[in-house]
Every structure is written in C-alpha cells, then in structure tokens.
Write a structure and sequence with these properties.
This protein has helices at residues 15-25, 32-41, 83-96, 112-120; strands spanning 4-9, 43-49, 54-63, 66-74, 102-108, 124-138, 144-158. Helices cover 28% and strands 43% of the residues. It has a single domain (4-158), classed as Aminopeptidase.
C-alpha cells in the first residue's frame, strides 16, 4: 500500500500524468491549458509515496497573503486511505511557514467527504456560490438527462 510521504513541485513534464488522472477522476475535467496556466500563475504540488509513486496533486493560486485551493485530486486507487488529509496537512504546514495568512476554497455541496475533510483540517464555511459548478442530472438508468448546475460552499482557513 502506498501512503503519502512528501510533496514536490509540479513541473511541465508531470502534466501528461496529471491530465490523465484529472480526466479519469472528474466529469468536467480541467483542460491541458488550465494546468499550463496554473503552472505559470500558481503553486502546484504532486503527492508522493515514500517509494516515489505519484498519488495525486493540488493546484493553488496565491494572491498577496491569500492562497486559493483550485484543484485537489487523489488517484482513485489511493482514495479513502488518508492520502488527501496527510498531503493537505503537509501543504498547510508549508503555507504557514510563508507569507500567506488565509487559505480559501470552493467545494461542491454534494461532496460530503471533501467537506468533512476540510472541516477536520480547520476550514469553516464562509458562504455559498449559487450554480457554480457544472453537473449532470441522471435518471434511474444512469442516462444523462441534462447538464445542470450545482452550488459551491466557500470555505476559509486562517493560518
């Protein structure tokens, strides 16, 4: 079993792996251009095991003394094993050692596991963005009926 061991900066050479994971993890994945823009503008990290296996990634956007978490993804085979919590704790510790004072994020209202994870790390709800995320509306046979919208919970953590 691979568990989280360390963070390392995401680089351009990591993008094929990151994009492939993004595409198999989300109904509405980021594009390659989205990740390229994030590399230019943000702080981006890969999550690694002690053996050097890539477990996931996180993209952040720093603005003055704030950091917004834009995207967190753990490979499906490593989910529900504490990888996200350990990686985010490590990331928050790194941010505490810097100039940043506040960490912000949005999370889908339906993403109960992520909401609980963020709350366990000290994030608190700070608002709601109506119709923020694209979503599918499914029928009983798992056929997509229409594209819909889903609200986002705004969360904040003071470092």
């Amino acid at each position: 079993m691979s568990e989280f061991s360390y963070l390392d900066q995401m680089q351009e050479k990591d993008l094929p792996w990151v994009l492939a994971l993004e595409q198999r993890s989300y109904d509405f994945p980021w594009s390659l251009q989205g990740f390229e823009n994030s590399l230019e503008q943000g702080l981006n990290y890969l999550f690694y095991s002690a053996q050097g296996d890539k477990l996931g990634y996180c993209c952040l956007l720093p603005v003055l003394d704030e950091v917004q978490i834009l995207n967190v993804c753990v490979a499906p085979e490593y989910q529900k094993k504490g990888v996200a919590k350990k990686a985010l704790k490590s990331l928050l510790a790194k941010l505490q050692e810097s100039v940043y004072q506040i960490v912000l994020l949005e999370v889908r209202c339906s993403n109960t596991p992520a909401i609980k994870l963020y709350q366990s790390l000290g994030f608190r709800q700070n608002g709601l963005r109506k119709d923020y995320y694209r979503a599918h509306c499914w029928d009983n046979s798992q056929q997509c009926l229409i594209e819909n919208k889903e609200d986002a919970i705004l969360m904040v953590l003071s470092l």
